[in-house]
Amino acid sequence: MLRTRLIQAASSAQRAFSTSQKALAAKQMTVRDALNSALDDELARDDRVFILGEEVAQYDGAYKVSRGLWKKYGDKRVIDTPITEMGFAGIAVGAAMAGLRPVCEFMTWNFSMQAIDHIINSAAKTFYMSAGAVNVPIVFRGPNGAASGVAAQHSQCFAAWYAHCPGLKVISPYDSEDARGLLKAAIRDPDPVVFLENELVYGTAFPVDDKVADKDFVVPIGKAKIMRPGKDITLVAHSKAVETSLLAAAELAKKGIEAEVINLRSIRPLDTATIFASVRKTHHLVTVENGWPQHGVGAEICARIMEDQTFFELDAPVWRCAGVDVPMPYAKTLEAHALPRVQDLVDAVLKVLGGKAGKAVAANK
Amino acid sequence: MSFLRKSVHILGSVARRQQHLKVIRGAISTAARDYSSKPADDYANFPGAKAPFVSKLNLIQPEDYAPIPIYRVMDQDGYIADETQDPQLGREVVEKMFRDMVLLNTMDKILYESQRQGRISFYMTNFGEEASHIGSAAALEMRDLIYGQYREAGVLVWRGFRIDQFIDQCYGNTEDLGRGKQMPVHYGSRELNFVTISSPLSTQMPQAVGAAYAMKLKPNNDACVVCYFGEGAASEGDAHAAFNFAATLGSPVILFCRNNGFAISTPSHEQYRGDGIAGRGPMGYGITTIRVDGTDVFAVYNAMKAAREYVLKENKPVVFEALAYRVGHHSTSDDSTAYRPAEEIEVWNTVEHPISKLKRYMVHKGWFDEDVENEYVKDIRKKVLKQIAVSEKKLKPNWREMFEGVYAEMPQHLIEQRKELEKHIEAHKEHYPLKNFEK
């Protein structure tokens, strides 16, 4: 039984790994290629940059994000490590202290719990506790959050965990533009950065502008992006939940409700200015994330609004759409229901809008 | 480690076998990767190990191995047993060694008392380990980078960290290089190439290996990293990672275990089985290993010289175990007489004490003048006591600094918080001890 499941998982994983050889239509880029080209650019730009992690070199990365880089840059720049997150995270911190700029890949962020002491107690705090004598420019990256059929221990979102800690910058990109621009910015940043990718979108091709392919294209850390403007309600999301929000916004548009979708991009620092400006316009807010609700990103946004004048702009309480408060179920159907779905968002928006939703729907008719 | 990892590997073996093999063949000569056993050969050639085949089943016992011998130069009475091992240090160097050890010992006694009097929150003494600090530091170059655990103040003494710098750090005042952001004894100095001490145990170990790896990448590198840790710290997972990575990455790092017999109250015989920390080096991790008498400053010095030469020449690590006895309590939060007899401590504090041994050597050489040395101790005591009075009165760093150093550039939310605090303090200044802080 277990073996069958392993093979199933392997073949489903294979779908995620597949790197299409088809010539992609112009101005399309997969998230995997966005990350890969960002790493390539930065390895070429700065010889202090190197990649380390399990399977990153000869095997091209468990999810092929570092594909071709070992062949191109060799053993000194792309390093396969023995299996110990605690160990190679520590190695990366030491190398950063000694002047290199490591990009430390976790096969998934779930395994970063083994290394969390190095990330928080060493990477995030050393600059402060050495009174500025030692800085730790480092990027920890890898897939985060629920994947597909990999059960509770491989399906956790770490955005709230790491965003809790001063000293870290926490990035959660959604599409290819985010992934490329933010990873390049993260590698150039003088502070330690936690870079939370999503395995399920690695193979997804997104349309990109020409400027995204530019060697010096970077997306500023700490700035959110409005993915879709709207006047009736604001949906704030990060990572794959941005996709859910965009789909929900399309559904809502059919009902005559114009939702504004904000892609947070950075969890810490949190771009409250963009959120507040949007809420001042729409007067309604739903937060969307695939992580758990308690002390989550949505909870933080609610608190920030209440501490600000923006609170008085709200016409209804804020609603959080988050993962269900249980360890991720393994069963496929349960897994799907444990994460916010498009319908959940539509329902939440209608509830928050209350009578106004009815009016909008009526006006549309 | 996990299910997902396995799935990834299965994928690799099933779907990508061809490509994977091509990558390997393309990159590395096939000879290096040829694991096939040769016919009619009783020597195995598995990828995981090369060893002879035997047809007799044998449970290998720890006792089958002789313990790694302990290198020493000087006996208890300060005589050099084998003249070829005399490092031939001049009188000036030996005097500096002795006086640095005495300085450390004297300063420790007073700062320990100052914690007992409630003047500082915490302190850790170095009693009994002075020789391993001074002997190892003396064999290094200033460009070598030090990662300490927390009980390596002697290395800083040798490198020129001043009494006022030690005491200012313990008092967290405005002259403290750490700007009052750390507990006492968490020293650090960029100038002296000493990485600021970090409290979590053993995290310095993989970090040191990483730093050494970074050094190796520099062209014409002529510096190594020395990582100090206790035998208790060697039980942490980080220690394993550090040993394994040092070996596999080929890092020029000296992994210096100060085996002082106790991890707080846990004696080394409860801490591990096997032949100490040195025993893990050659067979366990494939690392060149040295074991020395850590109460013999010359043994530590000679061994450290050899270790440094080796790691730089070979770009490989060394495991260095210095055996000593922690004469003091673990920290000011501990009373060690609760778990070990006072008589035992007394032996290590007298005949076996590294300072006594070096003193006897100097006496034989005719380099020791009792009056001069007594005067030196008195002088140090005076300096330390005076410095405590001075350091205590120094202002604390400006309170605004608590927002600094979180990020290279202060983010907006911290700028706002600092402004808020400034306004608050301006409005309620009579309730705050502002006169104690730098303006």
Automatic annotation (TrEMBL), chain A:
Its EC number is 1.2.4.1. It holds the Pfam family Transketolase_C. It is an enzyme of class 1 (oxidoreductase). GO terms for biological process: pyruvate decarboxylation to acetyl-CoA. One of its GO terms (molecular function) is pyruvate dehydrogenase (acetyl-transferring) activity. Residues 29-204 form the Transketolase-like pyrimidine-binding domain. One of its GO terms (cellular component) is mitochondrion. SMART domains: Transket_pyr. Keywords: Metal-binding, Mitochondrion, Oxidoreductase, Potassium, Pyruvate, Thiamine pyrophosphate, Transit peptide. It is found in: Mitochondrion. Gene3D superfamilies: 3.40.50.920, 3.40.50.970. The keyword Lipid biosynthesis does not apply. It catalyses: N(6)-[(R)-lipoyl]-L-lysyl-[protein] + pyruvate + H(+) = N(6)-[(R)-S(8)-acetyldihydrolipoyl]-L-lysyl-[protein] + CO2. It comes from the Eukaryota. Its cofactor is thiamine diphosphate. SUPFAM superfamilies: Thiamin diphosphate-binding fold (THDP-binding) (SSF52518), TK C-terminal domain-like (SSF52922). NCBIfam families: PRK09212.1, PRK11892.1. The pyruvate dehydrogenase complex catalyzes the overall conversion of pyruvate to acetyl-CoA and CO2. This is Pyruvate dehydrogenase E1 component subunit beta. The gene is Dyak\GE23833.
Automatic annotation (TrEMBL), chain B:
GO terms for molecular function: branched-chain 2-oxo acid dehydrogenase activity; metal ion binding. It is an enzyme of class 1 (oxidoreductase). GO terms for cellular component: mitochondrial matrix. Its cofactor is thiamine diphosphate. It catalyses: N(6)-[(R)-lipoyl]-L-lysyl-[protein] + 3-methyl-2-oxobutanoate + H(+) = N(6)-[(R)-S(8)-2-methylpropanoyldihydrolipoyl]-L-lysyl-[protein] + CO2. Residues 100-398 form the Dehydrogenase E1 component domain. Its EC number is 1.2.4.4. CDD domains: TPP_E1_PDC_ADC_BCADC. One of its GO terms (biological process) is branched-chain amino acid catabolic process. Keywords: Metal-binding, Mitochondrion, Oxidoreductase, Potassium, Thiamine pyrophosphate, Transit peptide. It is found in: Mitochondrion matrix. Pfam families: E1_dh. The branched-chain alpha-keto dehydrogenase complex catalyzes the overall conversion of alpha-keto acids to acyl-CoA and CO(2). It contains multiple copies of three enzymatic components: branched-chain alpha-keto acid decarboxylase (E1), lipoamide acyltransferase (E2) and lipoamide dehydrogenase (E3). This is 2-oxoisovalerate dehydrogenase subunit alpha. It comes from Drosophila yakuba.
